[in-house]
Model the fold of this input.
Amino acid sequence: MKTILIPTEDHDAMPAVLEGARLVARAFDSYMEGFAVRPAVGTYVTIEPVSSLAISGAFDPDTANQSRDLFTSFMEKAGVPRAQKGPAVFSYGWPLTEAADDAFLGNYGRVFDLVVLGRPGREPQNPRMAPLEAALFESGKPVLIVPKAVPRSFARKVLVAWNGSTEQAHTNAFALPILKLADEVTVLCVEGGTIPGPSVEQAAQHLRRNGVKAEALTVKPGARTPGEVILDQAAALGCDLLVKGAFTQSRLRQMMFGGATRHILAHAALPVLMAH
Done:
């Protein structure tokens, strides 16, 4: 976790995103890099109400400067030094002078250890979904998704949502450096919410063999969905991080029928580390 990428936009979760990234960087002595992310050109196309013609809006260059000022102002107030040449240490940089779109984020994220973004929402002031999708499905790296509430701690108590899947195994592997720092890790299995694969006890044992203080827990859902159980258990245990594989089902099936990933993206009140 020595290099952290922070796509920066003016949305209501950005202060929490920056603080979440800072907490990770402080723990791992990491370099944080920001850049102004913007929607792809196609997302600017709107319909003119009189002629019904599609009109492409232009991205305001000042928005990129606002994103840069937001990022650098936070870092300066937090006492984070500017990066110098050499190995990654606790520092920040803003090397790109112009805004780049979501597709660039998916590509550029491949040369970082972690991407930090805000939890998407439906309101205009909320973070967009497109950057998160680009990071999850194109970067090949884990994504820390931070809600609007500014985190006060990071990875002291962690919940791992085990469902036996390849996606969750990938996410656990990415999360190992973080899990090793935690005081308490609970590996949760929701009855009826798994696919064929190793048991929750085997998953917890694997983490313990890697130096993680992990314990297995199985919960009956009752009338709740797996996503509801996961978030309820995280709240009950006082967790400050959830580790969850993204989209074990296809994205289309998730969109049509729902699923744990979709529920968590819509409702999580704590940071979530996801990977696909």
Summary: The chain has a mean pLDDT of 90. The chain has two domains: 3-146, 157-275. Residues 157-275 form a domain with the Rossmann fold fold (CATH 3.40.50.620).
